[in-house]
Design goal:
Blueprint (H helix, E strand, L loop, with lengths): L1 E5 L2 H14 L5 E3 L10 E5 L3 H4 L7 E4 L9 H4 L4 E3 L4 H19 L2 H9 L15 E5 L3 H12 L3 E6 L8 E5 H10 L3 E4 L13 H6 L4 E5 L8 H9 L3 E6 L12 H4 L3 E3 L9 H17 L14
Parallel strand pairs: 1-2, 1-3, 3-4, 4-5, 6-7, 6-9, 7-8, 9-10, 10-11, 11-12
Helix pairs in contact: 1-11, 4-6
Bound molecules: NADPH dihydro-nicotinamide-adenine-dinucleotide phosphate.
Length: about 300
Protein backbone atom coordinates (compact mmCIF):
# COMPACT_ATOMS: atom_id res chain seq x y z
CA UNK A 1 0.00 0.00 0.00
CA UNK A 2 1.30 3.43 -1.00
CA UNK A 3 0.37 6.54 0.96
CA UNK A 4 0.42 9.96 -0.71
CA UNK A 5 2.37 12.19 1.67
CA UNK A 6 2.99 15.83 0.86
CA UNK A 7 2.34 19.12 2.59
CA UNK A 8 2.00 20.96 -0.73
CA UNK A 9 -1.69 21.08 -1.81
CA UNK A 10 -0.90 21.47 -5.53
CA UNK A 11 1.39 18.41 -5.44
CA UNK A 12 -1.22 16.44 -3.46
CA UNK A 13 -3.63 17.00 -6.33
CA UNK A 14 -1.05 16.01 -8.99
CA UNK A 15 -0.26 12.80 -7.12
CA UNK A 16 -3.90 11.90 -6.55
CA UNK A 17 -4.64 12.44 -10.25
CA UNK A 18 -1.60 10.42 -11.32
CA UNK A 19 -2.33 7.46 -9.03
CA UNK A 20 -6.02 7.52 -10.01
CA UNK A 21 -4.98 7.31 -13.65
CA UNK A 22 -2.08 4.84 -13.55
CA UNK A 23 -2.38 2.71 -10.38
CA UNK A 24 -4.90 0.06 -9.29
CA UNK A 25 -7.40 1.82 -7.00
CA UNK A 26 -6.62 -0.42 -4.02
CA UNK A 27 -2.84 0.17 -4.24
CA UNK A 28 -2.74 3.70 -2.78
CA UNK A 29 -4.42 5.84 -0.15
CA UNK A 30 -4.41 9.31 1.39
CA UNK A 31 -2.40 10.18 4.49
CA UNK A 32 -5.44 10.71 6.74
CA UNK A 33 -7.22 7.50 5.67
CA UNK A 34 -7.59 4.28 7.69
CA UNK A 35 -5.59 2.37 5.03
CA UNK A 36 -2.52 4.52 5.68
CA UNK A 37 -1.93 2.31 8.74
CA UNK A 38 -0.91 -0.49 6.38
CA UNK A 39 1.15 1.68 4.02
CA UNK A 40 4.60 0.29 3.25
CA UNK A 41 5.70 3.15 0.96
CA UNK A 42 5.09 6.89 1.09
CA UNK A 43 5.24 8.87 -2.14
CA UNK A 44 6.51 12.23 -0.98
CA UNK A 45 7.29 15.87 -1.71
CA UNK A 46 7.94 17.88 1.46
CA UNK A 47 6.22 15.21 3.59
CA UNK A 48 5.05 15.61 7.17
CA UNK A 49 7.57 13.31 8.85
CA UNK A 50 5.80 13.51 12.22
CA UNK A 51 2.87 11.87 10.52
CA UNK A 52 4.88 9.31 8.54
CA UNK A 53 6.77 8.18 11.62
CA UNK A 54 3.49 7.06 13.14
CA UNK A 55 2.72 4.63 10.30
CA UNK A 56 3.61 1.19 11.69
CA UNK A 57 4.34 -0.64 8.41
CA UNK A 58 6.24 2.11 6.58
CA UNK A 59 9.55 0.97 5.05
CA UNK A 60 10.21 3.25 2.10
CA UNK A 61 9.97 7.01 1.56
CA UNK A 62 9.91 7.63 -2.17
CA UNK A 63 10.53 11.05 -3.71
CA UNK A 64 8.13 11.67 -6.58
CA UNK A 65 11.02 13.33 -8.50
CA UNK A 66 14.81 13.14 -8.94
CA UNK A 67 15.66 15.47 -6.06
CA UNK A 68 15.50 14.35 -2.42
CA UNK A 69 16.50 17.48 -0.51
CA UNK A 70 12.83 18.08 0.38
CA UNK A 71 12.68 14.84 2.40
CA UNK A 72 14.95 15.89 5.30
CA UNK A 73 17.39 12.99 4.94
CA UNK A 74 19.24 13.95 8.11
CA UNK A 75 16.15 13.20 10.14
CA UNK A 76 15.28 10.07 8.13
CA UNK A 77 18.81 8.70 8.51
CA UNK A 78 18.69 4.92 8.21
CA UNK A 79 15.16 4.65 9.65
CA UNK A 80 13.62 4.15 6.20
CA UNK A 81 14.85 3.30 2.73
CA UNK A 82 14.69 6.27 0.37
CA UNK A 83 14.30 6.23 -3.42
CA UNK A 84 13.79 8.80 -6.16
CA UNK A 85 12.55 8.75 -9.74
CA UNK A 86 14.83 9.03 -12.75
CA UNK A 87 14.40 7.39 -16.12
CA UNK A 88 15.41 7.78 -19.75
CA UNK A 89 12.55 10.11 -20.69
CA UNK A 90 13.48 12.27 -17.72
CA UNK A 91 17.08 12.40 -18.95
CA UNK A 92 15.96 13.10 -22.51
CA UNK A 93 13.74 15.98 -21.30
CA UNK A 94 16.70 17.54 -19.51
CA UNK A 95 18.87 17.06 -22.59
CA UNK A 96 16.32 18.94 -24.75
CA UNK A 97 16.18 21.79 -22.26
CA UNK A 98 19.96 22.08 -22.04
CA UNK A 99 20.49 21.77 -25.76
CA UNK A 100 18.17 24.74 -26.18
CA UNK A 101 20.12 26.63 -23.51
CA UNK A 102 23.47 25.91 -25.13
CA UNK A 103 22.27 26.94 -28.58
CA UNK A 104 20.80 30.13 -27.10
CA UNK A 105 24.33 31.26 -26.30
CA UNK A 106 26.22 29.43 -29.05
CA UNK A 107 24.10 31.05 -31.79
CA UNK A 108 23.79 34.39 -29.92
CA UNK A 109 20.01 34.38 -29.52
CA UNK A 110 20.51 36.37 -26.31
CA UNK A 111 22.06 39.09 -28.43
CA UNK A 112 19.32 38.73 -31.06
CA UNK A 113 16.60 39.43 -28.45
CA UNK A 114 18.47 42.51 -27.20
CA UNK A 115 19.13 43.82 -30.71
CA UNK A 116 15.50 43.37 -31.74
CA UNK A 117 14.39 45.63 -28.90
CA UNK A 118 16.68 48.33 -30.32
CA UNK A 119 15.86 47.54 -33.98
CA UNK A 120 19.55 46.92 -34.46
CA UNK A 121 20.87 44.91 -37.45
CA UNK A 122 24.29 43.64 -36.38
CA UNK A 123 25.57 40.21 -37.42
CA UNK A 124 27.38 37.84 -35.11
CA UNK A 125 29.65 34.86 -35.79
CA UNK A 126 28.48 31.28 -36.26
CA UNK A 127 30.28 29.25 -33.61
CA UNK A 128 30.83 25.56 -34.32
CA UNK A 129 30.13 22.91 -31.69
CA UNK A 130 33.81 21.95 -31.56
CA UNK A 131 34.75 25.49 -30.50
CA UNK A 132 32.47 25.60 -27.48
CA UNK A 133 33.51 24.45 -23.99
CA UNK A 134 30.75 23.11 -21.78
CA UNK A 135 31.28 22.29 -18.10
CA UNK A 136 28.83 20.09 -16.21
CA UNK A 137 28.71 20.03 -12.41
CA UNK A 138 27.49 16.61 -11.32
CA UNK A 139 28.09 13.49 -13.40
CA UNK A 140 25.31 11.29 -12.07
CA UNK A 141 22.22 10.02 -13.86
CA UNK A 142 21.49 13.48 -15.25
CA UNK A 143 24.92 15.10 -15.62
CA UNK A 144 26.62 11.90 -16.82
CA UNK A 145 24.00 11.42 -19.52
CA UNK A 146 24.27 15.06 -20.64
CA UNK A 147 28.08 14.86 -20.77
CA UNK A 148 27.94 11.82 -23.09
CA UNK A 149 25.27 13.35 -25.33
CA UNK A 150 26.94 16.73 -25.70
CA UNK A 151 30.35 15.13 -26.32
CA UNK A 152 28.73 13.00 -29.05
CA UNK A 153 27.47 16.21 -30.66
CA UNK A 154 31.06 17.42 -30.89
CA UNK A 155 31.20 19.95 -28.03
CA UNK A 156 34.27 20.12 -25.78
CA UNK A 157 32.78 18.74 -22.59
CA UNK A 158 34.22 18.62 -19.11
CA UNK A 159 32.49 17.38 -15.99
CA UNK A 160 33.00 17.52 -12.26
CA UNK A 161 31.87 15.09 -9.58
CA UNK A 162 32.83 13.96 -6.10
CA UNK A 163 34.46 10.67 -7.12
CA UNK A 164 36.58 10.23 -10.28
CA UNK A 165 34.78 9.22 -13.47
CA UNK A 166 35.83 7.90 -16.84
CA UNK A 167 33.50 8.99 -19.65
CA UNK A 168 34.58 8.70 -23.28
CA UNK A 169 35.42 12.08 -24.88
CA UNK A 170 34.70 13.95 -21.63
CA UNK A 171 37.40 15.55 -19.46
CA UNK A 172 36.44 14.36 -16.01
CA UNK A 173 37.44 16.21 -12.84
CA UNK A 174 36.72 15.28 -9.26
CA UNK A 175 36.75 16.83 -5.82
CA UNK A 176 37.95 20.14 -4.43
CA UNK A 177 41.43 19.72 -5.85
CA UNK A 178 40.14 19.77 -9.47
CA UNK A 179 37.48 22.42 -8.96
CA UNK A 180 39.47 25.44 -10.21
CA UNK A 181 40.85 23.66 -13.29
CA UNK A 182 37.41 22.39 -14.21
CA UNK A 183 35.85 25.84 -13.94
CA UNK A 184 38.56 27.53 -15.97
CA UNK A 185 37.30 25.60 -19.01
CA UNK A 186 33.57 26.17 -18.67
CA UNK A 187 32.27 28.79 -21.11
CA UNK A 188 28.81 27.44 -20.42
CA UNK A 189 28.51 26.07 -16.90
CA UNK A 190 25.62 23.69 -16.28
CA UNK A 191 24.72 22.85 -12.70
CA UNK A 192 23.24 19.39 -12.20
CA UNK A 193 24.35 18.77 -8.63
CA UNK A 194 21.95 17.48 -6.00
CA UNK A 195 21.51 19.90 -3.11
CA UNK A 196 23.44 18.77 -0.04
CA UNK A 197 24.81 20.62 2.96
CA UNK A 198 28.27 20.61 1.27
CA UNK A 199 27.27 22.50 -1.83
CA UNK A 200 24.71 25.14 -0.81
CA UNK A 201 25.71 28.47 -2.35
CA UNK A 202 28.33 26.86 -4.59
CA UNK A 203 27.35 29.13 -7.50
CA UNK A 204 28.82 32.22 -5.92
CA UNK A 205 31.46 34.91 -6.33
CA UNK A 206 34.32 32.45 -5.71
CA UNK A 207 33.16 30.17 -8.53
CA UNK A 208 32.25 33.02 -10.91
CA UNK A 209 35.79 34.43 -10.58
CA UNK A 210 37.22 31.13 -11.82
CA UNK A 211 35.11 30.96 -14.98
CA UNK A 212 36.35 32.33 -18.32
CA UNK A 213 35.33 35.92 -19.16
CA UNK A 214 31.77 36.13 -20.45
CA UNK A 215 30.82 32.66 -19.24
CA UNK A 216 27.15 31.68 -19.01
CA UNK A 217 25.39 29.76 -16.25
CA UNK A 218 22.57 27.27 -16.59
CA UNK A 219 21.19 26.26 -13.19
CA UNK A 220 19.00 23.17 -13.19
CA UNK A 221 20.22 21.83 -9.84
CA UNK A 222 18.51 23.66 -6.99
CA UNK A 223 17.94 27.33 -6.22
CA UNK A 224 19.91 27.06 -2.97
CA UNK A 225 23.05 26.33 -5.00
CA UNK A 226 23.01 29.91 -6.24
CA UNK A 227 23.90 33.10 -4.38
CA UNK A 228 21.51 35.32 -6.29
CA UNK A 229 23.10 38.65 -5.37
CA UNK A 230 26.54 37.45 -6.53
CA UNK A 231 25.05 36.44 -9.86
CA UNK A 232 23.34 39.81 -10.26
CA UNK A 233 26.61 41.62 -9.46
CA UNK A 234 28.58 39.57 -11.98
CA UNK A 235 25.98 40.05 -14.70
CA UNK A 236 25.80 43.80 -14.05
CA UNK A 237 29.57 44.18 -14.15
CA UNK A 238 29.68 42.37 -17.51
CA UNK A 239 31.96 39.64 -16.13
CA UNK A 240 29.28 37.00 -16.87
CA UNK A 241 27.31 37.00 -20.10
CA UNK A 242 24.01 35.53 -18.96
CA UNK A 243 22.14 32.95 -16.94
CA UNK A 244 19.31 30.53 -17.55
CA UNK A 245 17.66 29.66 -14.25
CA UNK A 246 15.11 26.90 -13.79
CA UNK A 247 15.22 26.56 -10.01
CA UNK A 248 15.04 29.11 -7.19
CA UNK A 249 15.61 29.17 -3.45
CA UNK A 250 11.98 30.18 -3.04
CA UNK A 251 9.55 28.86 -5.62
CA UNK A 252 7.55 30.42 -7.15
CA UNK A 253 10.06 33.24 -7.57
CA UNK A 254 8.59 36.18 -5.68
CA UNK A 255 6.95 39.08 -7.47
CA UNK A 256 9.31 41.99 -8.22
CA UNK A 257 12.43 39.89 -7.62
CA UNK A 258 15.33 41.60 -9.47
CA UNK A 259 15.95 38.40 -11.47
CA UNK A 260 12.56 38.83 -13.19
CA UNK A 261 13.60 42.17 -14.67
CA UNK A 262 17.19 41.36 -15.59
CA UNK A 263 17.76 41.37 -19.35
CA UNK A 264 20.59 38.83 -19.11
CA UNK A 265 18.51 36.27 -17.21
CA UNK A 266 16.13 33.70 -18.67
CA UNK A 267 13.69 32.24 -16.15
CA UNK A 268 11.78 28.98 -16.45
CA UNK A 269 9.46 27.81 -13.65
CA UNK A 270 11.19 24.55 -12.57
CA UNK A 271 10.22 22.72 -15.73
CA UNK A 272 13.60 21.64 -17.12
CA UNK A 273 12.48 18.03 -16.94
CA UNK A 274 10.23 15.69 -15.04
CA UNK A 275 9.52 12.02 -15.59
CA UNK A 276 6.11 11.26 -17.12
CA UNK A 277 3.52 10.51 -14.43
CA UNK A 278 3.09 6.96 -15.73
CA UNK A 279 6.80 6.37 -15.08
CA UNK A 280 6.61 7.94 -11.62
CA UNK A 281 3.65 5.81 -10.57
CA UNK A 282 5.01 2.58 -12.05
CA UNK A 283 8.41 2.97 -10.46
CA UNK A 284 6.86 3.60 -7.08
CA UNK A 285 4.53 0.59 -7.42
CA UNK A 286 7.53 -1.53 -8.42
CA UNK A 287 9.66 -0.31 -5.52
CA UNK A 288 6.80 -0.92 -3.09
CA UNK A 289 6.70 -4.56 -4.16
CA UNK A 290 10.48 -4.79 -3.97
CA UNK A 291 10.68 -3.33 -0.47
CA UNK A 292 8.01 -5.75 0.76
CA UNK A 293 9.94 -8.68 -0.72
CA UNK A 294 13.32 -7.40 0.48
CA UNK A 295 14.68 -7.02 -3.05
CA UNK A 296 17.11 -4.38 -4.38
CA UNK A 297 15.33 -1.08 -5.05
CA UNK A 298 15.36 1.09 -8.16
CA UNK A 299 17.14 4.45 -7.79
CA UNK A 300 17.85 4.07 -4.10
CA UNK A 301 19.37 7.09 -2.35
CA UNK A 302 22.31 6.95 0.04
CA UNK A 303 20.73 8.84 2.94
CA UNK A 304 24.09 9.37 4.62
CA UNK A 305 25.68 10.90 1.49
CA UNK A 306 22.53 12.97 0.95
CA UNK A 307 21.82 12.02 -2.67
P1 LIG B 1 22.78 11.73 -9.06
O1 LIG B 1 22.69 11.45 -7.61
O2 LIG B 1 22.64 10.61 -10.03
O3 LIG B 1 24.17 12.45 -9.37
C1 LIG B 1 24.69 13.47 -8.58
C2 LIG B 1 26.08 13.83 -9.09
O4 LIG B 1 26.54 14.97 -8.36
C3 LIG B 1 27.11 12.73 -8.88
O5 LIG B 1 27.99 12.67 -9.99
C4 LIG B 1 27.87 13.20 -7.63
O6 LIG B 1 29.22 12.77 -7.56
C5 LIG B 1 27.83 14.70 -7.82
N1 LIG B 1 28.01 15.39 -6.55
C6 LIG B 1 27.21 15.37 -5.46
N2 LIG B 1 27.69 16.16 -4.49
C7 LIG B 1 28.85 16.68 -4.98
C8 LIG B 1 29.83 17.55 -4.45
N3 LIG B 1 29.74 18.07 -3.22
N4 LIG B 1 30.89 17.85 -5.22
C9 LIG B 1 31.01 17.34 -6.47
N5 LIG B 1 30.11 16.50 -7.03
C10 LIG B 1 29.05 16.18 -6.29
O7 LIG B 1 21.71 12.87 -9.36
P2 LIG B 1 21.00 13.21 -10.76
O8 LIG B 1 22.06 13.39 -11.78
O9 LIG B 1 19.91 12.26 -11.06
O10 LIG B 1 20.28 14.60 -10.41
C11 LIG B 1 21.02 15.68 -9.91
C12 LIG B 1 20.11 16.81 -9.51
O11 LIG B 1 19.55 17.43 -10.66
C13 LIG B 1 18.87 16.41 -8.67
O12 LIG B 1 19.21 16.21 -7.33
C14 LIG B 1 17.99 17.62 -8.85
O13 LIG B 1 18.35 18.60 -7.90
C15 LIG B 1 18.38 18.13 -10.24
N6 LIG B 1 17.30 17.90 -11.19
C16 LIG B 1 16.58 19.00 -11.61
C17 LIG B 1 15.55 18.86 -12.49
C18 LIG B 1 14.83 20.07 -12.99
O14 LIG B 1 13.80 19.93 -13.66
N7 LIG B 1 15.32 21.26 -12.73
C19 LIG B 1 15.15 17.54 -13.00
C20 LIG B 1 15.98 16.45 -12.53
C21 LIG B 1 17.02 16.65 -11.65
P3 LIG B 1 29.59 11.20 -7.41
O15 LIG B 1 29.17 10.58 -8.73
O16 LIG B 1 31.05 11.20 -7.26
O17 LIG B 1 28.80 10.69 -6.25
Amino acid sequence: MIVIATTVPKVQKWLEDAFRQYAPHDSYCLADSEQAQSATTAVSWFPNLDHLEKLPELKLIHSMAAGVEHLNLQRIGTQYKVCRVVDQLHQKGMFDYLQWGILYYQRFFDQAFRQKKQQQWRQYPQREHAELKIGIMGLGQMGGYMAKQFAALGYQVSGWSRSPKNIAHVSCYAGDEDFDTFLGQAEILINLLPLTENNQGILSKYLFDLLPEQACIINCGRGQHLVEQDLLNYLDSGRLRGAILDVFAKEPLVENHPLWQHEKVVITPHVASHAPWSVVVNQILENDQRVIQGQALLNQVDTLKGY
